[in-house]
Design a protein that fits this description.
Layout (H helix, E strand, L loop, with lengths): L8 H4 L3 H8 L3 H9 L6 H13 L6 H8 L4 E6 L5 H16 L3 E6 L4 H13 L4 E4 L8 H8 L5 E4 L8 E3 L2 H13 L5 E6 L6 H16 L4 E6 L8 H8 L6 E4 L2 H13 L9 E6 L2 H5 L5 E4 L2 H18 L6 E2 L3 E3 L11
Parallel strand pairs: 1-2, 1-3, 3-4, 4-5, 5-11, 6-7, 6-8, 8-9, 9-10
Antiparallel strand pairs: 10-12
């Protein structure tokens, strides 16, 4: 029988004492090489780093964080990572955080207000240094009430917007107007807006507002708002019901995943896009451009939204630069899912 071997963490990790002995310096010098390198002569720092690299030494970041009163971790709260738009935002934030040796802890809410609050408390319990948040109904969010009580916790919104709260987003209302005007330019007079529950997505609510403004200004013959239980999945029976009587000639969806789900359902029903009905979305995810026909959509720079939010948060944490809001540009991606309406 082979003898059992118990290996401690200490034996798996070269200690600062060993590095000091091998480098011929004090443990304080090794500590300064990683924590306060500016206090050492360049040749001393380089010598210590060389010995550390040769022996696989890695400084204890957790211990350092506890001593400095900071975890060097940012919290990111998003509705889901299944939507490529939010995944790109997360990726953009990660890339910038890593440049400054910050880690990111992510939590998702699945568009549930209860989960949103629980996830926020989880991030706060892990003592993150700051937060990047995409909330549901941001104006009425319990999460915002909690953060206002946690006055020492810096945070910035991504996609969501609240007056007086720093954020990074497109102008969703303007984007809604731009997309509605684009669709109307193809002679569509009977337009619908499709979304999940508005109380769990302030983005969808603002986009609807922009579309509705255009519908009123152009005096469209008919405009309606269809609401689904889900923000990303269509239900076949509901779609059938909507199309059974005076169906719209164009449907603007609150996001691309919902638009692609709708297009799939319409194809199954034998309805041609855009010949029978025009479909468009929001976000500009890559899958929309791969679909046939290509999805007409509002493209927003999701990776930039995450990157800019992270940059602003880190600038506040490291240099005390006040957090401010930024509106990033959007653009219409024409695609091929919207065409000229021909009554038949």
């Amino acid at each position: 029988m082979l003898p059992s071997v118990v290996t401690s963490k200490a034996s798996l990790r070269t200690s600062i004492v060993e590095i000091a002995r091998k480098a011929g310096v004090s443990t304080a010098t090794v500590s300064r090489a990683f924590n306060r390198p500016e206090l050492l002569r360049p040749e001393t720092r380089q010598h210590v780093e060389k010995i550390a690299l040769e022996h696989g030494f890695r400084p204890n970041l957790v211990g350092r964080s506890l001593r400095q009163g900071a975890t060097r971790t940012l919290g990111v709260l998003l509705p889901t990572l299944n939507n490529p738009a939010f995944a790109e935002c997360f990726d953009g934030a990660c890339r910038d955080a890593q440049k400054l040796n910050y880690s990111i802890m992510v939590a998702t809410t699945d568009y549930c207000t209860k989960t949103e609050l629980e996830s926020l408390h989880m991030l706060l319990d892990h003592q993150v240094d700051g937060l990047i948040l995409t909330l549901g109904g941001a104006q009425e969010s319990e999460a915002i009430k909690v953060l206002r009580e946690e006055k020492a916790m810096p945070y910035i919104l991504a996609y969501s917007t609240i007056q007086g709260v720093p954020s990074v987003s497109i102008d969703d209302q303007l984007a809604g107007r731009d997309l509605a005007e684009y669709v109307a330019s193809f002679q569509h007079k009977n337009i619908a807006f499709l979304s999940g529950p508005l109380h769990t997505s302030d983005r969808a609510a603002r986009r609807l507002l922009g579309v509705r403004q255009v519908a009123r200004r152009l005096k469209l013959s008919r405009f309606c708002h269809y609401v689904l239980p889900s923000h990303t999945q269509c239900e076949p029976q509901l779609v059938k019901n909507w199309l059974s009587s005076n169906p719209p000639t164009a449907i603007i969806c609150s996001n691309d995943l919902l638009a692609l789900s709708l297009m799939s359902q319409l194809h199954a029903f034998g309805i041609r896009i855009p010949d029978d009905i025009a479909i468009c979305g929001f976000d500009g995810i890559v899958f929309g451009a791969m679909y046939t026909p290509q999805l007409t959509t509002v493209s927003q720079p999701s990776s930039d939204i995450g990157r800019i939010a992270c940059q602003k948060l880190l600038a506040y944490l490291k240099q005390h630069i006040p957090l401010t809001s930024t509106v990033v540009p959007h653009r219409i991606f024409p695609g091929a899912s919207v065409g000229v309406h021909s009554p038949h």
